[in-house]
Write a structure and sequence with these properties.
Radius of gyration: 18 Å
Number of strands: 22
Shape: globular
Bound molecules: beta-D-mannopyranose
CATH architecture: 5 Propeller
Number of helices: 4
Distance between the termini: 22 Å
CATH superfamily: Glycosyl hydrolase domain, family 43
């Protein structure tokens, strides 16, 4: 049995696996959990991140407003399913050269010590990785951008490894990047990042076509007794445009640049109408996962068609067995 090494979360949102399910993940029956008009100003709410907070949950949401301005909004929930999201975007305190907002999107959140760290794709003369933190989801502090433009999908590990903060990221271009590998960088202080290491490239089309164009880290990696469980997105370019599916890999605990297993088959892709239809069709884009160490349960939050937010479930054991049985 694969064991999750983290806190227990008895109130993790959950639905049992439907009988006869043969997939590694199954969807929440009431998806999507957040509709496009989840706030009074939103055009769409997707690619968002949640964490346990107080007796319930808090989150950082990507809301594109009705001017299609991409920004981050805080939200709160008692059960992880019904969310109340602020009508106003987060405003960060910090160096004004860095806090000036061009655009912000695709947040991830992880708790390290007593701070909830947020990483996101931050417009600073092109997309790069913004970093900030909060302790209360009311006041937000912004640190230096982690990297030079252009970069996306910056995801922090939930603890230091060998005494250093660790971040996955995906160097990119200024447009809808037709390439992309996942890299690992380390930092002593969350300001200066270096010792960059290659982790994974897109797969060869012949071997695993769904992830042959680009890949990017999804939720914060989940620590297990078999390594870091990384859920990621993989993209193929088709005659109808990009299709975003989800995959998973196991990375070495002490050297996360070392890939132990990586799924050849996708673990979920756009199949439901809310995943296939929306502002950008055929996108399933995971940005957060809640875990319960006692039961091994995992609840994955993912954006659907760049329009709404949904929930899917699995267990560490089910997902890791799947990756190992169908490894690239
Ligand atoms: C990526 C990002 C994501 C988005 C995806 C599909 O480049 O912009 O936010 O979900 O494209 O449009």
């Amino acid at each position: 049995m694969t064991k999750i090494i983290a806190d227990s979360l008895p109130n993790i949102p959950w639905q049992d696996m439907p009988s006869g399910c043969s997939e590694p993940l199954w969807r929440y029956s009431e998806n999507p959990i957040i509709g496009r008009h989840g706030t009074s100003v939103s055009n769409s709410i997707f690619n968002s991140a949640v964490v346990p907070f107080g007796k319930g949950f808090a989150g950082i949401f990507r809301c594109d407003d009705r001017a299609i301005t991409m920004n981050l909004y805080a939200g709160f929930s008692d059960n992880g399913i019904d969310w109340k999201i602020n009508d106003f975007p987060i405003s960060f305190e910090g160096d004004m050269e860095v806090t000036v907002t061009e655009y912000r999107y695709d947040p991830r959140v992880t708790k390290i010590d007593d701070r909830y760290y947020i990483t996101w794709c931050n417009g600073y003369h092109g997309p790069t990785i913004g970093v900030g933190y909060t302790t209360d989801f009311v006041t937000f502090h912004q640190l230096e951008n982690a990297f030079l433009p252009f970069n996306r999908n910056g995801v922090l590990f939930p603890r230091k490894i060998n005494g250093k903060y660790m971040m996955l990221s995906r160097p990119s271009d200024n447009g809808h990047t037709p390439f992309g590998d996942i890299f690992l960088s380390e930092s002593p202080d969350l300001t200066y990042w270096g010792r960059h290491r290659h982790v994974m490239s897109p797969a060869a089309f012949e071997k695993s076509g769904w992830q042959c164009t680009k890949i990017g880290a999804g939720p914060v990696p989940i620590e297990t007794d078999e390594g870091w469980l990384l859920i990621y997105h993989g993209v193929i370019n088709t005659c109808n445009g990009f299709v975003y599916r989800m995959g998973a890999a196991l990375l070495d605990t002490d050297m996360p640049e070392k890939v132990l297993f990586r799924s050849r088959y996708y673990i979920m892709g756009p199949e439901m109408s809310y995943e296939q239809n929306g502002d950008v069709p055929n996108v399933t884009f995971p940005c957060a996962a809640l875990t319960d160490a006692d039961t091994g349960r995992i609840a994955i939050y993912y954006g659907c068609a760049d329009t709404v937010t949904s929930l899917a479930f699995t267990t560490a054991e089910r997902l890791c067995s799947f990756i190992k049985a169908h490894s690239l």
